[in-house]
Amino acid sequence: MDIRNAAANVKLFAATHPSFTYAVGAGLVLSLSLLLLYRAALPKPLPGIPYNASSARNMFGDVPAMLSHIANEDGTFISYLINSLEKLDAPLVQVFIKPFGKPLLILSDYQEASHMMINRTKEFDRSTSSGDLVRGLGPDHHIHLKTTPAWRAQRRLVQDLMTPSFLTNVAGPALYEKASTLLDLWSAKAKVAGNRPWAAGKDIDNVALDAVMAFAFGKRFSEAHSATLPALKAVREMGHADIVALQGSGEADEPVSFPVYEEDKLL
Question: Is-contact 224 196, C-beta < 8 A?
């Protein structure tokens, strides 16, 4: 009897307060929509391929675990993938990075990956996820384009850069010349530093830049604009007092700090 009275009271209240009915209906529709949205956002694992079970139950997939790995273990996205491969003990695993997106397949078998990239290019095109890493720097670069007419047109522009004639007659001599300049720079630094070390990373970056500029824009441009020659000039122009002061600074195993030189503004 109480249940019937309660039901009758609810009907009477709904009849006299239509806004209440609309609110209840809207709440039910909203709740159902959120539930469907949540289920749609859950990862959809591919059958037969290992994955982290806890990530499959989270609408953000592997993202929370990946962020925790980066924050707590000073890791990276790549190290998280390596950990997942080791944890799941499989050469092929899947991780869930994008809500509503497809799983990201990670293949760690070198021979199979090489076979796919060399002999099965018609079946496996460039990865969209890998392309996203460089899309911001070169949105139209062919390095991340699928095999489309646009990709073929761009490849035709640079295909001669790997021919034997270009490598022998253009790139080879430029690389030899710039490498010789680097050896001159290091010989000059070695005489000044004595038995002490020095940081060589920037020297290598500079000579690589010089080589690219040489076979891209020609010898005349590379001679007028160099990243290595100013450093060589600065070392050779060091006076006796400067060399003595430099050799006397720091411990014997500390890298020598060579003078700062004026870099080419165009480069």
Answer: no
